[in-house]
């Protein structure tokens, strides 16, 4: 089990120690399967899950990459200060999605996200807007937002708020964020 944050293209980004055995394994053979599960009731077999198949690559992170990761995992800042940790991101080849009983399928990595990612400045502006509007009410924090949904943290639990459909422009993203704010304001 390993904490991750999605990058702007929805690929998992991990922060690992250069001394760890799994990091040595990534250098020897970067192919990997990466399982992400949403099982709020603890039953992983009935929850939604996706297995990502691909190869991990070392990432020379931009300042925005680091800020994004730390929004998802603020405690990771202490690991960055050690100087021993490095970022890796997965280049997706295929994924297997299971949405529950009878809802499953394969998707090629190139099909995952046909829309261009949000620019970091646009995502940051939406996060600031959420923070201004929500304040301390509701206790929800917007970790990240993309054209398909928003990642929220409330009471220490990270949840995905999926939009009804993809949002291809700023106006529709603001409208989706408004719905998100209304649902999480209480």
From TrEMBL:
Residues 11-109 form the CREG-like beta-barrel domain. It comes from the Bacteria. This is CREG-like beta-barrel domain-containing protein. GO terms for cellular component: cytoplasm. InterPro entries: CREG_beta-barrel, Haem_oxidase_HugZ-like_sf, Split_barrel_FMN-bd. Transmembrane segments: none annotated. It comes from Paraburkholderia susongensis.
């Amino acid at each position: 089990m390993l904490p991750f944050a999605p990058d702007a293209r929805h690929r998992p980004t991990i922060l690992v120690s250069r001394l760890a055995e799994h990091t040595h394994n990534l250098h020897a053979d970067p192919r990997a399967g990466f399982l992400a599960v949403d099982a709020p009731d603890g039953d992983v077999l009935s929850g939604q899950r996706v297995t990502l198949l691909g190869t991990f690559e070392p990432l020379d992170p931009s300042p925005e990459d680091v800020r994004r990761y730390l929004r998802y995992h603020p405690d990771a800042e202490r690991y960055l200060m050690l100087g021993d940790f490095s970022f890796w991101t997965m280049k997706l080849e295929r994924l297997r999605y299971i949405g529950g009983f009878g809802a499953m399928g394969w998707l090629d990595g190139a099909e995952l996200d046909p829309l261009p990612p949000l620019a970091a400045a646009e995502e940051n502006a939406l996060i600031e807007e959420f923070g201004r509007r929500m304040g301390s009410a509701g206790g929800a924090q917007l970790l990240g937002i993309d054209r398909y949904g928003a990642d929220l943290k409330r009471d220490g639990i990270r949840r995905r708020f999926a939009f009804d459909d993809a949002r291809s422009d700023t106006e529709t993203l603001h409208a989706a964020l408004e719905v998100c704010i209304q649902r999480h304001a209480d």
